[in-house]
């Protein structure tokens, strides 16, 4: 498929995990990619993988901290300066943070997680939406989480920030639908990414793989999701095929969010 031929797509958190997986899928469909991450090393790795898929893909790398509004404005301005438009935006960058009961959750840690996961998403939407509103077209997918639609335990900062992402998504979808912009969110469950591996290491230490095997027993499909499975979903939701899907949060979790 070439759903993104001549389309300009920004991906944040593109240096690894879901951002990298989505970038690879978008590259396979001929998107012009603006890849954003705090890790320049991660960006270069993604660029190398993208070009291995499609040597003709245009790639712009931008190192930026999404918790810094000026940096966010910077990657948006760089995109418009180079391409003159933004067709789609995977607003994905985020962290999990440390695990702890709410009473023991550090205030600094809470603020750090919220600043990246929630403020960063807000800044991205704020500056990208200005461009898309003027264009009269555009599509945004925000990364929420199963932890944004139910409790997950020991992750106050993460759950609060991801619930906030869900609220921002729904609210902005109401505001910008009349301008031709569709906004939705995905709610991944346990997808085997470096972030999920880090979470398992917090639980199981060096025996984190055994902790993972125990963890997936609680999932109806009895396995972790694959990053590329999320990439397929993101590409669909960003495409013109999904224009009339607006304001929804799509779980991709093997049924985890429906199991009690």
TrEMBL record:
<dbReference type="InterPro" id="IPR050259">
    <property type="entry name" value="SDR"/>
</dbReference>
<comment type="similarity">
    <text>Belongs to the short-chain dehydrogenases/reductases (SDR) family.</text>
</comment>
<feature type="domain" description="Ketoreductase">
    <location>
        <begin position="7"/>
        <end position="189"/>
    </location>
</feature>
<dbReference type="InterPro" id="IPR036291">
    <property type="entry name" value="NAD(P)-bd_dom_sf"/>
</dbReference>
<dbReference type="Pfam" id="PF13561">
    <property type="entry name" value="adh_short_C2"/>
</dbReference>
<dbReference type="InterPro" id="IPR057326">
    <property type="entry name" value="KR_dom"/>
</dbReference>
<dbReference type="InterPro" id="IPR002347">
    <property type="entry name" value="SDR_fam"/>
</dbReference>
<protein>
    <submittedName>
        <fullName>SDR family oxidoreductase</fullName>
    </submittedName>
</protein>
